[in-house]
Amino acid sequence: MLYIAVVGGSECTGEESELALQVGSEIARRGGVVICGGGSGVMKAASEGAQAAGGAALGILPGTDHRLGNRYLNFTIATGLGEARNALITRTADAVIAIGGEYGTLSEIALALKMNKPVIGLNSWFLEAPHKTGQAIIEASSAKEAVDKAFSACRNV
Amino acid sequence: MLYIAVVGGSECTGEESELALQVGSEIARRGGVVICGGGSGVMKAASEGAQAAGGAALGILPGTDHRLGNRYLNFTIATGLGEARNALITRTADAVIAIGGEYGTLSEIALALKMNKPVIGLNSWFLEAPHKTGQAIIEASSAKEAVDKAFSACRNV
Amino acid sequence: MLYIAVVGGSECTGEESELALQVGSEIARRGGVVICGGGSGVMKAASEGAQAAGGAALGILPGTDHRLGNRYLNFTIATGLGEARNALITRTADAVIAIGGEYGTLSEIALALKMNKPVIGLNSWFLEAPHKTGQAIIEASSAKEAVDKAFSACRNV
Amino acid sequence: MLYIAVVGGSECTGEESELALQVGSEIARRGGVVICGGGSGVMKAASEGAQAAGGAALGILPGTDHRLGNRYLNFTIATGLGEARNALITRTADAVIAIGGEYGTLSEIALALKMNKPVIGLNSWFLEAPHKTGQAIIEASSAKEAVDKAFSACRNV
Q: Quick one: closest CA in A to D105, which residue?
């Protein structure tokens, strides 16, 4: 069973929300589990998409109350770690799909790449490294393409 | 939905394993979710009990690979935090049931009591504090009694 | 350079405070570094003792502001991890001296023993395990004896 | 006392190493403390610079042995948290100076910006956000300018 993290802003545009919904749904239809930070915005839409497609979504929360995740999560973990929980999302995931996002999302992209996990970007950050680095963000232009690429990348690891 | 952590040794006696199986099953029958460290021994038996009763078990793993939990877990989180993950088990739980156990279990009992979570003990640690402390371990003598007391304690919080 | 954690209540008796002051001082006089949670009570007294003897004390704080440690600390780390920071205190220490204490202290004793670190107790918890366990708390009856035993135990590891 | 994190690759170019040495030295000369990941490369050079100028450097290590930091550190914390320790570096710091770096460094830049800490870049990452974000990396072209900007930014917070 593949665990795919969907990361992005807790506030997001309508277009990003729609993409996240489709990404969550596509992950579930392929038998994957959505891992996310458990909040609103992209996280909530991805969870809703997973649920609508009969799949599952887990929320790894920064706070101390397991009840405070969005309403589409099957289960939540209350880490109480604040921002340090971002490392647990990427550690748990087999691949990461980033949709838009701000600095929290960027930290998840970076942590995932540092951990050698595939990262697929949908209208997300553009990065230019000071040096040649290893693996980069894999760009996708639709939800379906992002999820296809995430699953392919996992199989090739 | 109540989250009940079941903590105990990764090695345990046959009697403890049987107790953990019943505890997992009783939690599931009351609609609760089993939270555990995801390993063998008491953790595995509690997960098996939950699954057998049609419920769910989550494993919060110390390591970095989400595939390395016991086979009765519905979902796992790979924290990569080592022993620090014990604090996430108690943080996520509404109540903790301790069955036997060694120092890892003792740390979970202590962290739970520090966090003001109810702790039910089944043949577990006997503690004598240097000072008067708050809440103590609530003793139980059967799996059913332990789970009854865990659910009652949650309702009274 | 040996790192000795001094753990105990953020509220403590006058006797415990005096013991912690002496323990901090004895650690510093032997060239050790005091590691603590950075708070008040036993933590503050141990830090003060270390400083008075010309040594150093580090505070590993649960919160997010490195300025919020007690005033006798040379340096602090703001973990933002809440109770999970207890595992970092014991992980960093070569040995742990526990003075009195409540559940937070008990969690540090248990985590240290789980990590195979020597733990010396001064009027601290009395524990009775459900099973035979490994190493137990080493009792001491004076600050000097506690620090002697901590340093000896480190050398024998 | 200001805590300035210096982040960058554990492998780095000679030019980056020289910059890090100067940055560490400039921080110490202004009475600041160097916070770093405790490893080699940029971390080691910054620690060496701080020591050479009579200042102090702290290493927040990913591993479990406090002895495994570079030899210019005054004190180390053994977190045992792996990559999650990056969040503790930025949490503890009042400002962050990034020199070159790969994905680990990028995660520290992102976590710092998420935590509203000033980030100064010296030949480091170029980022283009999918949305308007808050504060960005403040560029500097010399060690002295980077440290001046870090101290000014702290005073304005």
A: A110
